[in-house]
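The pair is set out directly below:
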Amino acid sequence: MAANKKEAIILAIDVGKNSLQLDSDGKTYFEKSKFCASMILKRKIFAESKDYLALILFGSNQTKNHLASQGCYYNNIEIVTSLGLVTWDLIKHINSLSPSDITRSDWLNTLVIAADMLKKETQDKIFKDLQIVMFTNLATDISFDKIDIIARCIQTQCINLTIIGKDYEDILLNTGLETFITKTEATAVNFDSVLPKISNYKQKEVTPRAWNVPLSFGNVFNIKVIGYKKIDETPKSFKWSLCRNYDTPDSITAMNKHITYSYVENGEQIEVDHENIIDGFRFGDTIIPVSDLDIQAYSYKSGPRGLQVLGFTKAKNIQRSFLMDGGSYIFKPFKEDIVEFSAIFKAMVEREELMIIRKVYLNDCMPTIGAMFPQREDDENYFVCVNLPYAEEEHLFKLPSLKTFKPNYEEKNAVLNLIDAMNLDKDGNELFMPENTHDPELQYVYDCIAQKAINPDKLLTKTIPEYIQSLLNPPKRIMEKAKQPIDEIIKLFSLQQEIHENPIEDDNTSKFDCDEEVENSKQCVITAFSPIEDFNKLLENGFNSAIVCGKMKNITLDLIESSTSMEDLEKPASNLKALREFYIHDNDVKSYNNLMYLVKDSVLLSGKEEMWSQFIDSGIGLITNQEVEISDITQELSENFMKHEVLEDVTADFIIDDDDPLKEFL
């Protein structure tokens, strides 16, 4: 039976007048409390947590709690929600909170109500942990007469109390607060300590699956090991649901995808059953069909799963560039094989060697080659396994030698000063360590989803949150230290920017902002089904003509390459007619004529020489100076361009004996 990991947490926020006091960074305690509480809830949602949470406001204009009937002690304390799963509505409520004009925020009686809630609402339920998280600066003077009773109640219920908003050093200056923190065994931290830990979203925690497998040394002996995936690439896919939106958010309904397969013959679209479709490989113009039987025949059968030791090698032979992506595994021995495991481990450490292994994760899966590194951590020995590349996966580069450059003392010293200034580990707490550095892309996607969930009718803000920017930029304090060494390097080294002038093929190309170009390119889509309609529509909608024409050129060349008959060439011929008319109207004949030379190469090189004459007669020839005066193409050049001689079969001129090797060659 799986252990219960569910927690019961009560968030208590001070919304009284005292919460408007400014913290050291100029922000109010109220603003920081709202942000922290909101982030805690959003982290729970994205982590798909099953924890139960409740919300209490103290210093509120309203009194709404189950102890309010017992006198004025529990006034201005509002229970917003009882314990339950986190919802976006609760986050919206927190974001919409505004401070009250109540001067007295009784945080101690709020603690009594929260503890009583936990006791009553967790009866007959099993929770791993009970927590009360209180956001307050503890500015209200409180009587500590019943502190012993409250502390005993909290300890009896095993409640973990956390107070966010005030430094523990400041609490020590108040004897009553110090006694309270000590007796309740509470944790008191300021916002600066909490914000870095909760500003990043968390994914759903997945319990690592153990991989029990023998580590085999040929047919000699096996060592039973258990493997866990230590490092794995973050999946960028989300559980998106395709929905149809009518008028209101309540009318959003899920849609079911239905895929149909069809082909076009004689201008008519004919649907095909999925059962009649098979896979195939394309090599040039030839499509090689592959059936299920073929797939079974050429599929590699690696045999049973396992780890097979291929040999040992010096650690220096495995360069860092050889380490592949795909994650890493750690392997530990079973208790009965710990002696053999330790003996091999110690020998590898002493000889500075590592193990080359063949890994098959499941029966008949594709094998991978990996390197096993001996590693020791927390007095425990284990192997770390990382995949190695095959020869086809390595890219060779010829890099220039640096031996000809020998820096002088000043240049060398300037670079050393820069490295010292930008040393991330100088304060004893290294930055950008993998275990503390979150994926900025993933964080930004989560932030966008949260924005749309809270405000579905508003557009997403283009401002990147500060905590995500901190993942992309060097820390300010490091750049301040590095300013002087950088200035010194600029002074010593002649760093001149090289300007490369790239020849422009298309006169219609215009310069515009890079971000706008990327955005327009994504929105500009021309399909192979209706290219001319898409082309005209995009131009009518004001898209940049250079991008639209570029898309039209690409789809036309693709259609020519994939064509197998003259009927298939009718569509690219129509595309070229549309481009020809556009370029003539735009007085840009050079771009069209340059394109036609590419078209001719595409037709001839793809083995369609016999179709060229009929294809070019479709009214898509070069634009001559008789049509447009600015053209540099004469009528003679145009006529020569349209010609192409088809070579006759030279084998017909030879009489070759049957036993002549030349016959087989031809």
Observations:
- The first helix runs from residue 29 to 46.
- The chain has 21 helices and 19 strands.
